Amino acid sequence: MTQVSIHLRFTRELYCVDMTATAAGSAEPTTITPRSRVLAWGLWDWGSSALNAVATTFVFTVYLTGNSTSHPFGNETFVSAQLGWTLGIAGLLVALLAPITGQRSDASGRRKFWLAVNSYIVVVILALMFFVQASPNYLWLGLLLLAAGTLFFEFAQVNYNAMLTSISNRRTIGKVSGFGWSMGYFGGIALLLIVYFGFIHPDVGLFGVTSANGLSVRVSMLIAAIWFGVFALPVLLAVPEYHAPDAVARKKVSFFASYARLGRDIARLWRTSRQTLYFLIASAVFRDGLTGVFTFGGVLAAGTFGFSPSEVIVFAIAANVTAGISTVLVGRLDDRVGPKPVIVAALIGLVVCGLAVFFLHDAGQTAFWIFGLSLCLFVGPAQSASRSFLARMIPPGREGEIFGLYATTGKAATFLAPTAFAIFVSIGGAQYWGILGIVLVIAIGLAVLIPVSAKATRIAP
């Protein structure tokens, strides 16, 4: 079955009909979600591959860190460590600000507005990466743009994730979440094919572009900016703005007063839905490990396993195919058996495959192809099921706030994978030792998740 047919078959099933029992035993009105809205929502994920697949994973970060034969920005180990520290600082800023931006977008009823603002800031940042020439003098500009792109992308994603409950119901939320994640992977495939065959692989690409002074990568970042700019539009046009019902609407308060409200909300979560907090902590740890798999995957392929820039992109395409198909298929399993078993199985698979990559680092590219792609089987399902697990708990009107906390706890732990990667590289004296740091973070997240109740109890409104 082709990727396109999988998505067409899937979207035909997204007229969501749900009769949910209320506390009084009655049924809520039937909820119908037009598939056009689900598709429009998923296209944002498709477009966001411009940052996730091209900038932070397989093209721009590899351009900065170099490969086994070329290091235009400096020593591979030094640049890899600086990349880790820079992304860690960006994560700290997200941790401080994300729940407040989410909470305030809930109160103002302007989720789409802030999704648009933050998305198009990312578009501008991607375009500015064109100016990062292949010289050590431009290293910090490149790292700064990566950090800023990560920061504003996370702000956008808070509002994007908050829309999940508006376009699905409790019976289909896992499927819809998986659809969104898979669209991100398939969008990454399409964009990587464009930049690979259009600019990076040929000696002379489209418009006469060559690899001199990193021009092929720099032009690819302009293409990525256009890509995200175009595919961020449908969700803004097709999905209605959410306005909280009067019964749960909250008054907008000042920026600093938002932190006081956040503190009260966290205290209430501790009293009324403690399992939610436990899950937020566990997911913060293992999601950072999942991010580390893709963030450092391309770096390891180039630096440790000797992949050329073109070979890294070929691997990236295969990785996105693998992750996309597994995510859309496992999304159905999420709705049948629940998200926790999906997450646990995926994390175990990641630990096993990560250890295999470490111990077989001398076995050549074949070993990385086998176990690197095996890792990709598990990353998407774990991410998608984590989002659906939390979305099942959130009462109407608090999606932005709770997904802001989701981003905050995740970004509060963002330093874990990059720092563990940098520490193990320093201890082992070779880049491949960083694999153990990422595996350790995933294993800790799994250990913290296991005691969390699999029953997604609703948070008190």
Radius of gyration: 21 Å
| CATH topology call | Growth Hormone, Chain: A
Fraction in helix: over 70%
Instruction: Indicate the structural class.
Output: mainly alpha
Strand content: under 5%
Write up what this structure looks like.
By secondary structure, this protein is mostly helical. The chain has one domain: Growth Hormone, Chain: A, CATH 1.20.1250. The protein is built from 17 helices and no strands. The protein has helices at residues 3-12, 35-58, 60-65, 76-108, 111-128, 139-162, 173-200, 215-231, 233-238, 255-272, 274-303, 309-337, 339-359, 365-391, 399-412, 416-428, 434-449. Helix 4 crosses helix 10, helix 7 runs antiparallel to helix 14 and helix 12 (309-337) runs parallel beside helix 14 (365-391). The chain is globular, with a radius of gyration of 21 Å.
